[in-house]
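Assess this one:

_____
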Amino acid sequence: MAVFSATALTAAGPARAQTYDPDYPVCLRVYGLASYDECRYTSLAQCAASASGRSAQCLINPYFANAEVPMGP
């Protein structure tokens, strides 16, 4: 039984547990009874259009995979 359990756990594969999707640079935080983040926008303008009229706010994704780190002097 233990071997079966260990095999089932390792065969499940990795799951994405991050709140912020690293594939998109902009996230929409929606506020309400169940607040949540939608990280699926490619620009702030696109996010703002989706946030219009809602209790929501656009944020820069701090975990964006293609983000460049500024070089210091």
Summary: The chain has a mean pLDDT of 79. The beta strands are 26-30, 36-41, 56-60. Helices lie at 2-11, 44-51.
